[in-house]
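for the recovery benchmark. tokens below, seq after
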């Protein structure tokens, strides 16, 4: 199995003594098929069937057909060096359903499941030196009004699980969303970036910092690109984009 090694190394549930004891007595059930999952949230068969992104552009995570290529045409023609992207899965069944359940139906345990899936992918990227370990993890913020309505920020919840697995500090106060932007859906690429200008505020001196910016789903890259621009303006040396899923 492609991810067997990472799967073996991953112990998402059995993190406390109580968890370990419970796992020994009654195996955990897979959240997707309810089969025993031996201390994991997802059983090996379902894990293998997930829509892993596979070979993708290092600069925007769009899947690439040729494994010899590192960047897509758009990233190759970009004037500045693209940020490294590490995105685990395609935004398809059942990942899209888990993300929607977390976001809109407050199925909070999915934050752990999705955080574990991203952590598995990140461990591999770190191990193969595809990326260097960053200094800190910054979740993409919601506007305070949106967060008040939802009561939580899904990117923050996922970031907490990833941070625990990869041993990184989470710094949620570095980036704030100060403007509630209208929906981006119908806008073109340039208009999307324009629409986001002035939406975020970055605080603190980030001189030389290597930052991982974490979002639940990356759709157009406009949000992460705008935050990355601001983090670099505040002195960040490198910004990596980490996400559970990407629309393809
Ligand atoms: Zn299963
Ligand atoms: Zn690209």
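predicted aa per position
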């Amino acid at each position: 199995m492609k991810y067997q090694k990472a799967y073996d190394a991953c112990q998402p549930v059995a993190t406390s003594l109580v968890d370990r004891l419970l796992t020994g007595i009654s195996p955990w059930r897979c959240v997707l098929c309810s089969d025993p999952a031996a201390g994991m949230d997802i059983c090996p068969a379902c894990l293998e069937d997930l829509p892993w992104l596979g070979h993708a552009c290092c600069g925007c995570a769009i899947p690439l057909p040729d494994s010899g290529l590192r960047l897509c045409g758009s990233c190759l023609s970009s004037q500045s060096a693209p940020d490294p992207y590490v995105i685990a899965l395609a935004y398809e069944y059942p990942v899209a359903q888990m993300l929607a359940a977390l976001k809109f139906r407050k199925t909070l345990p999915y934050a752990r499941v999705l955080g574990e899936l991203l952590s598995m992918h990140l461990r591999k990227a770190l191990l193969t030196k595809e990326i260097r370990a960053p200094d800190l993890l910054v979740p993409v913020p919601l506007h305070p009004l949106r967060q008040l309505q939802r009561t939580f920020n899904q990117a923050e919840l996922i970031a907490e699980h990833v941070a625990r697995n990869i041993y990184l500090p989470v710094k949620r106060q570095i980036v704030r969303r100060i403007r509630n932007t209208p929906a981006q859906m119908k806008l073109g690429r340039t208009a999307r970036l324009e629409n986001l200008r002035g939406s975020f505020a970055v605080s603190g001196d980030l001189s030389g910092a290597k930052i991982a910016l974490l979002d639940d789903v990356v759709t157009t890259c406009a949000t992460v690109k705008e935050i990355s621009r601001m983090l670099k303006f505040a002195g960040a040396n490198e910004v990596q984009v980490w996400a559970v899923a990407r629309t393809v």
